[in-house]
Design brief:
Number of helices: 8
CATH architecture of the largest domain: Orthogonal Bundle
CATH topology of the largest domain: Arc Repressor Mutant, subunit A
Distance between the termini: 25 Å
Number of strands: 5
CATH class of the largest domain: Mainly Alpha
Order of helices and strands: HHHEHHEEHEEHH
Shape: elongated
Helix content: 55-70%
Strand order of the largest sheet: 1-3-2
Largest sheet: 3 strands, antiparallel
Strand content: 5-15%
């Protein structure tokens, strides 16, 4: 059994798998390089992987080391074993089309988390929710202060904390929009 397998259940979300892979140190330099190519070209056959790897190598040779001709298939196979790349269910020219596991492109950058039910929560989701919460707190806490069930200082502090959470996630959304490459 692989160390990464021992750290997660098969039903755990992709973020848990990614964390386990990181903890176990299972992604070698060549695997990370192949994963980067999948990030830039979301669905590929093994032949397309080889071609797209060559394109990425021309752009960023330091991030895409030279690999043996069959190395691409081997690295992709290892990523499949890790649960990071999956069969898309499609074929092209008689070859299987592979893709990143659902949500992995954002999960690897920490831009999405998954609930226990497997539903994704993005930074944008969190920012919108915090924005609504700040508005609700202003309304509700105003009444609580008026009724004497909350002090003005408590109200101000609660709103201040939620406003900071809102700002934090709004900044993460902006940073996400400005990111153009995958840092694996």
């Amino acid at each position: 059994m692989k160390l990464a397998d021992a750290l997660v259940r098969s039903t755990d979300p992709i973020t848990a798998k990614a964390a386990a892979v990181g903890i176990a140190g299972r992604l070698g330099t060549n695997q990370r390089a192949v994963l980067r190519v999948f990030y830039h070209f979301p669905e590929m056959t093994d032949g397309e992987l080889r071609e797209n790897y060559a394109k990425r190598r021309e752009l960023k040779p330091s991030e895409h080391p030279e690999q043996a001709y069959d190395g691409f298939q081997k690295r992709r196979g290892e990523l499949v074993e890790q649960g990071l790349v999956v069969n898309s269910g499609k074929t092209r020219d008689g070859m299987i089309v592979w893709r990143l596991e659902e949500g992995f492109d954002k999960a690897i950058r920490g831009q999405v988390v998954f609930t226990e039910t497997g539903r994704p929560i993005t930074f944008e989701d969190a920012a919108k929710c915090a924005r609504r919460e700040v508005g609700k707190r202003r309304h509700v806490y105003e009444n609580k202060v008026r009724d004497g069930t909350m002090t003005p200082a408590e109200s101000a502090r609660e709103i201040e904390v939620m406003s900071w959470i809102q700002l934090h996630f709004e900044r993460l959304v902006e940073r996400e929009k400005s990111q153009t490459s995958l840092d694996l």
